[in-house]
Amino acid sequence: MILILAPNTAPESSVYRELIHRLDHLTGIKHRVHREIGTEVTLTEIYLIGNTAALNPDVVRQFPGVERIVRISEPYRILGRHQIDDRRATSFEYNGVCFGQDTFHIFAGLCAVDSRESVEAMMRSLQAHGQTCTRMGAYKPRTSPYAFQGYGKECLPYVFELAGKYGIKVVAMEITHESHIDEIHHALKDTGNATGVMLQIGTRNTQNFELLKFVGRQKEFPVLIKRGFGITLDESLNAAEYLASEGNRKVIFCLRGMKTNMGDPHRNFVDFAHVPAVKRLTRMPVCIDPSHSVGTRAMAPDGLLDVFHATAQGIIAGANMVLVDFHPFPEKALVDGPQALRMNELAHFLDDTALVRETYLKRVARAAQVQHI
Ligand code: PEP
Ligand code: MN
Where does ligand 1 bind, in terms of residues with CB under 6 Å? Predict the structure, then answer.
């Protein structure tokens, strides 16, 4: 059971102290407080854990400071949706950008940073097309130990400086070790926080629980967690819940395809039909990664690349974010060049995604009319 307190209930207030006193006296029930400090209001939620079935909801609702209660019916206690009218937030703001189950952002960029020149060419194009988010891989988890592992902290100063120069507000960047957070924090600080970073947990680390706990304990950066490529959706959603259970709720869930030969000729089996399922089961915004799902530049007879088609399939189903590989010089890319889209395809990609998003919004409006008849 979750107790939602009246906004701005201060921990020093007598109402709050009285409530905690009552909770301390409930037998077999522990509580955990989560406080979300916003610019205008501070929201407090208290999670009751243990034999909550024995509690009378009507009595708990009358406890001091309690505005309403939410019954937990699903396993993802914090990130889950627990009842039809669970009105808890489905969005968050980071560095002036709002991410939610109703918003839409494209993160086009480099799979791996390979030179200052590539980064600058990429960001210049993004700005020219009105984009304020990107992806830039500095720490790359590679199948072979002999493959390029990313420039790591060496490239961070120019990535962040150029992001600031070209008006990029959020850079999605995978980390593979907790020490990378510190490196990112310091490099950002050295540029006067010219931009923001969304930490990415890659599919190979979805169940690296110690990394998840560490990343969850920091609240400076939001987190994009990829679905594990060989585990169930439930297991991946529990991985996301690890982040939230440690305190960080600014979490976005990313579908990126599943590893199975059934997906051939694509690199992974595209799983974007799960976009609405994740939005129904949780309050997380949902991202799709068509580049790592499809993994080729193959084109259908209709003249659209398979990557464009897969992207459209995710957006038409309500995806809130698209993580997509682009490269100004794909032949020189050190990682995933063959699947990268080219700069002269950016305008078409943005037009195509905008068209599909518009259609999705029309579908939602139409569905709302039908339900009201
Ligand atoms: C990536 O986005 O660069 C990446 C390595 O993706 P994934 O973890 O989905 O393989
Ligand atoms: Mn890649």
Answer: 111, 137, 174, 202-204, 226, 256, 289, 292
